[in-house]
Amino acid sequence: MAHVPVVPIGKERAAVVDDATFDREVSSHEPLIEKLNARRAEVRAGWGPKYVDRVHEKGKLTTRERLEHLKDPGTRLYEVGTFVNYGIDFGGLESPAAGVVTAFAQIEGRWCVVIANDNTVASGAWWPKTPEKIERAQEMARRLRLPTLYLVDCSGLYLPEQRKSFAGATGAGHIFKMNSLLSAEGVPQIAGVFGDCIAGGGYMPIISDRVYMTEQAYMVIAGAALIKGAKSQHITSLDIGGPEVHVHQSGCADERVPDDETLIACLRREVARLPSSGAAFYRGGVESMEPSYPTSDLPGLIPVDHRQAYEAEEVLARLCDQSLFWEVLPSVGREMICGVARVGGLYAGFVLNRQGLIADPEAPAEQRPAGILYRQGIAKISAFSRACNSDGLPLIWLQDISGFDIGAEAERHGLLAYGSNLIYTNSTNEIPMFTVLLRKASGAGYYAMAGLPYDPVVQLSTPISRLSVMEGRTLAIASYNSKLDDNFEIITVDPKERAEIEKKMADVEARIDADMDPYVAARQLDTDEIVRLDELRDWLRVLVEMSYQGVGYRRVKNPRIWTMHDLDVLTSGGRA
Questions:
Q1: Is the pTM here over 0.70, yes or no?
Q2: Other CB atoms closer than 10 Å to residue 358's CB: what's the count?
Q3: What is the DSSP string of 45-60?
Q4: Cα torsion angle, 171, 177, 183, 186, sign
Q5: Residues 1-40: pLDDT tens digits?
Q6: Nearest-CA neighbor of 430 among 397, 389, 384?
Q7: Which residues are within 8 A (CB) of 146 and not within 5 positions of it... i.e. 6 or more apart?
Q8: Domain 45-276 belongs to what topology?
Q9: Which of 153-167, 220-234, 308-322, 396-410 has the highest mean pLDDT?
């Protein structure tokens, strides 16, 4: 029973698609990848070289430079929320990344969440969506029990837009509630104050377990300008709340250090004092091994055109260690694949949609489209999701879904009830879940497969993701259904009326298609990050490792007593 019956899956690329098809698909992806790379660079530049020079003139590092010093040498940052506020105009100004960098970083061998105000964007001010972005990162840290580091250099709210970031359930004040929840649940928080730390920014580090300040830093409820206006006192912000005050008098900070470099060294030292990762223990001596087939194949295997099918098993074969996979419940719900594999040497569960046509179990001589949830598939992934929760396996959802089956037969089969069972399961799971929108993420299928409203720890999109209730053309037909015949052709023969309906339908289709752009979702925090397909394995490897870093906060069964084995025996008679 202890044996996890993984088997090789996948084929060499040439056996999956011919050279011409592969090259054509790669060419279709290339402009989207170039756009992603260019936009990442644009966001990383903040407000540009002039503002970088201003920071350096003060003898300080930029936020991006601080992050490079903070993370372990040779490792990369896994940034989330890169495109929050992307392209939004605030009175002639933009706020790249909402003025704050949130990222997973490996520090002294431990994965941490880092939240760092970008001091090249309005002196690290909080814009609309900045609080929500910070809170989202704090929630990721809370769910994974990751040490959380705040690199504070914040001039407070960007006041011309204060209405959009001050009030409401996720307004700026909710950051401090999240500070409190992290503390209450024993998640280490460490703050480094590098400069301005005004009003809400002043509260942000206080609940942290350790607080460091540079000689240029200050923490104040109100800065010098406000004090001058309110009390006619001429005093500097450093006099009000600098390290002399908060380290030696108020006790609101623990240590003062001369400069940015020293503070970063101190932060690394504090992280080194924390318990090390439990991932090596849970690997049980099995190290990470690359898939048998390269992840770089993926752009040539997954068509940009969402109407074209591909072999879902070939995606798994380029994500799992050694391309080894145990498919659970393979004989039912063939539109869905679920199973277990190692990623980075650690076990994780996978759920993904098959594409193309599959046999119809209700009418064996016929076929029906995959990429849709039917009764057996819903029941299958509900059972699998519960098993992962029972066994403590992090669960990865790879979505390419058009929605639920519809029609009279679907209603007779009780899809509403089966779907509700799946939603209940995913809503009450305690394991870390991660969702990837590979391509389509449509309608209630997006919800059922652990879309963002169902609290995956992280949701990733790709440059070809399409997130919507329904496709633009379908929605245009639904909106103007009363004007169409049974073949969806416009009924009227009046040329003027016909042209008007055609234009309105085209406008609806174009607007919906524009709204499905992954950058629109990322801009408004409807997805956490956009990643290239060839980066996906690295992201999953890191997310799974973070799931196993902390110990003692969730159930993690050893493979001998997995619920998965029970499912296997009860549905297929088990294996010898």
A1: yes
A2: 19
A3: TTT-HHHHHHHHHTT-
A4: negative
A5: 468 999 999 999 999 999 999 999 999 999 999 999 999 9
A6: 389
A7: 104, 111, 112, 113, 140, 187, 546, 549, 550
A8: 2-enoyl-CoA Hydratase; Chain A, domain 1 (3.90.226)
A9: 308-322
Closest by alpha carbon to 127, among 101, 88, 158? 158
Domain range summary for the chain, segments of one domain joined by +: 45-276, 287-468+518-571, 472-515
First-to-last alpha carbon distance for the chain, in angstroms, is 10
Model confidence over 302-340: pLDDT tens digits? Answer: 999 999 999 999 999 999 999 999 999 999 999 999 999
Average predicted confidence (pLDDT) for the chain: 90
Say how many C-beta atoms besides its own lie within 10 A of residue 10's C-beta: 23
Mean pLDDT of the region 423-428: 93
Question: Please, where are the H alpha helices in 157-259?
Answer: 163-166, 174-184, 200-203, 224-231, 237-241, 243-248
Same topology, domains 45-276 and 287-468+518-571? Answer is: yes
Tokens of 514: 């524009």
Match domain 287-468+518-571 to its CATH number in 3.30.10.20, 3.80.30.30, 3.90.226.10, 3.40.50.300.
3.90.226.10
Instruction: Give Dmax (Cα) for the chain.
Output: 87
Single-letter amino acid, residue 138: Q
- Tell me the C-alpha distance between 392 and 278, whole Å: 14
